[in-house]
Amino acid sequence: MDPPDFRAAAHAVADLMADYLETVETRAVFPVIEPGSLAPLFPSTPPEGPEPLATILTDYQRLIEPNATHWQHPGFFAYFATTASGPGILGEMLTATLGQNPMLWRTSPIGTELEEVVVDWLRQALGLPESFDGLLTDTASTSSLIALGAARQAAGFDVAARGLTGRPDLPALRVYASTEAHSSIEKACMTLGLGRDALVRVPADARFQLQPDALEAAIAADRAAGHRAIAIVATVGTTSSTSVDPVAAIAEIAQREGLWLHVDSAYAGVVAMLPERRAPFAGWERADSIVVNPHKWLFTPLDASLLLTRRMTDLRDAFSLVPEYLRTPDRETPGRDYNEYTPQLGRRFRALKLWIQLRWFGLGGLRRRIDHHLGLAAEFARWVDDDPDWERLAPVPFSTVCFRWNPASGASESELDARNTAIMASVNRTGEVFLSHTRLDGRFTIRLAVGNLRTESRHVARAWELLRAAVRSDDA
Amino acid sequence: MDPPDFRAAAHAVADLMADYLETVETRAVFPVIEPGSLAPLFPSTPPEGPEPLATILTDYQRLIEPNATHWQHPGFFAYFATTASGPGILGEMLTATLGQNPMLWRTSPIGTELEEVVVDWLRQALGLPESFDGLLTDTASTSSLIALGAARQAAGFDVAARGLTGRPDLPALRVYASTEAHSSIEKACMTLGLGRDALVRVPADARFQLQPDALEAAIAADRAAGHRAIAIVATVGTTSSTSVDPVAAIAEIAQREGLWLHVDSAYAGVVAMLPERRAPFAGWERADSIVVNPHKWLFTPLDASLLLTRRMTDLRDAFSLVPEYLRTPDRETPGRDYNEYTPQLGRRFRALKLWIQLRWFGLGGLRRRIDHHLGLAAEFARWVDDDPDWERLAPVPFSTVCFRWNPASGASESELDARNTAIMASVNRTGEVFLSHTRLDGRFTIRLAVGNLRTESRHVARAWELLRAAVRSDDA
């Protein structure tokens, strides 16, 4: 694409982007589409000749935009929101243009050193001590995999070199997390060769928080069985109910047992940017590693996960490989080669969008928006609490409310499950809001997770209105 | 950022992007910077208040652009090129704006189904049979990790559930690849808990191609030792010399031994889009999995790696986990949830940029550009061959030439290593081109890898001129 053509095209696309964001609220958050209905809209064979950009962009508006789940919509309350903020999008535009690959210092000096700067800015914003260094990865799945990979290596069996097989002397390795911990922890165990069975699911209490006594008992039982504990994962803000594990008590146990403590705060971690809201994080400064995802509640376009750690050397021991073609004259100098800390070699320049965002919002601006979301969720929780026909199913430490319809007149558990499933489906069909669910204590639970940058009080109010209307309507 | 502000900002950034691409050739490909000199240019603490976008963009031009390694420069001949093409960048702009996360069909119907379409278009373009399905990942490292993870699972020990530890009955697992295979294969073995030692490095011949006899012998020896072979990795286009393993012969062995065959063609795979150049790929249609990176020689912005496989079910067995909060009413329907095939849960919408690119270039346009690069490398190789003071150190099956200065008057190996190191450094200091090196048979080898979309004959000619000038100058 010739430079003048690219300039014209970039301006045309800039308008498409602005149009989309300007009108996203007019769309159905989750459009009515059946699986398998979209692929047939595209030619089954690839195009042989070039097509004009105008045709492609027309198709983009016709085929792509209407068939997206609109994560940018202010009525997006499902899962945990990922908003791509304006300044974050500008950052992605520049990232794509520069084409950096900060796998080595040499392949992107600025990509490497700006990552150092931004990681340290985020560490300070979160109130963590200087002993934490870190890096940016694609997702929390990768961040936690790296943390547990480092824990596996730090266990002292030199797994990076010798592996886990053909070593009959090697005990079974064990990782501990609550029953509420995220699937990414279990998947990391699968990927790392520990297996799902290596993840000991420690019971949570009635507030869905890991029980330290049960953790200690599980570790002791495994030790008695000849197994070898290597890591504990504490979660601050679990995915189902956003519950908070007692990190300080867990840190005590980890220290006593000599275990790697990884804190998964992919969703809620950004709340630590508000000094007055740091109570749930007490003790996380004693963790060996912490994951917080800017691409969740820090309004950063996918992908950007922050992995902080006090043990960078252990990460490198677990993941470093330097073949000849990656050796550089700079290796005697302090230039950092981030690929030595990750399962992937190639890396995107993720620091740029974060640098732009942090400056555009300022920490104050980010705090204000997060605080606004906390307030919206608290308000919604009050509405649920105040209505005798609705029931809140978990505490609301952050911006997510777990609840269900449960009429004062009474209903069986199976009826409640069926009706709440129908209520959620009915609300989602309106296209005005998008909710997702979980199960807590076996009960079908509707989740309303506030986190979209565009969400205002009126959107949360509308969700509540739609939910109550769904109860009254026939189709729920 | 309000919609009108975003529109204005996106246009301002569009101009910055176009300006950069218009002038990238005037920059030093690899700027003269010392490691550690950039981080101090930024404030050591994060900004508290918001800053105007104009200030941030001015800093972008002042601090970011000049300190990048310019992968977009036509003189970029190092490693393997990654060009972000114009249409690819437009795709990234729209991807960032839509904020899709195609982890589930439900979280992005179009992200999921367009991925199916584009993966199949690429399969057809590469001339592979319909039995291949696949997905897009971030990097070849992840693609190969997934392939080997599936091979580990397919070996029959249910490693996903039971893991590799605490099972004294489990034999040592083994993976085979040539001495020239990429570090990502070794890293996948580390990550997967097989360990570096599990990767048996089969000797290559004088052309740096894996020797099938040696492979068979290695497998037999391991079997005799009680080890269990699980996979063979064949490379078409190795990283050092772009050598081509004899895939057909290796496929025979894999079939006979019942081993997973993974073909790493991350760099060279796109050459299979040229039907007349498919000879090096003969037999790859028998592979269980193949990786080809659009973000290398298909001009796609980082990140985009294509993993094709005939065994999607094995991938899913190795990586699927479906917690309650990811279960959806659609699970009874044919909607595909791509996260079940990957170590990561969150996923970028990578299909969009590929869809735009494939249509904008057309397969014909892509073939023409790849063919042009093949021609440029062949021309450079001829210059080296025709000059008595230079020596080519490997065949040139694709677009990469391995060579060194080796004067007709003779020189010792240690002198040659020192002089060629100095020659490369001297050429790189000019900023006009950027070369990297490897070692072949222990010799310091300069690599010229053609792959940037903007590279023309004059850039390759200039590289040759600079190399010869460096020999004459004092500083080399």
What does this 3D model show about the protein?
2 copies of one chain form a homodimer. Chain A is an alpha/beta fold and 476 residues long. The first copy, chain A, folds into 3 domains: 3-70, dopa decarboxylase, N-terminal domain; 100-348, 3-Layer(aba) Sandwich (Aspartate Aminotransferase, domain 2); 358-472, Aspartate Aminotransferase, domain 1 (Alpha-Beta Complex), CATH 3.90.1150. In chain A, 41% of the residues lie in helices and 12% in strands. Chain A contains 14 helices and 11 strands. In chain A, strand 2 (173-178), helix 7 (183-191) and strand 3 form a beta-alpha-beta unit. In chain A, helix 4 packs parallel to helix 12 (351-386) and helix 13 (413-429) crosses helix 14. The N and C termini of chain A lie far apart (53 Å). The mean pLDDT of chain A is 96. Chains A and B meet through helix 1, helix 2, helix 3, helix 4 and helix 5 of A and helix 1, helix 2, helix 3, helix 4 and helix 5 of B.
Show the helix and strand layout:
Two copies of one chain form a homodimer.
Chain A: H1 3-23, H2 53-64, H3 86-98, H4 109-125, E1 133-137, H5 140-154, H6 159-162, E2 173-178, H7 183-191, E3 199-202, H8 212-224, E4 228-235, H9 247-257, E5 260-264, E6 289-292, H10 294-297, E7 305-309, H11 312-319, H12 351-386, E8 390-392, E9 400-405, H13 413-429, E10 436-440, E11 443-449, H14 457-472
Parallel strand pairs in A: 2-3, 2-4, 4-5, 5-6
Antiparallel strand pairs in A: 1-7, 6-7, 8-9, 9-11, 10-11
Helix pairs in contact in A: 3-12, 4-12, 5-7, 5-11, 12-14, 13-14
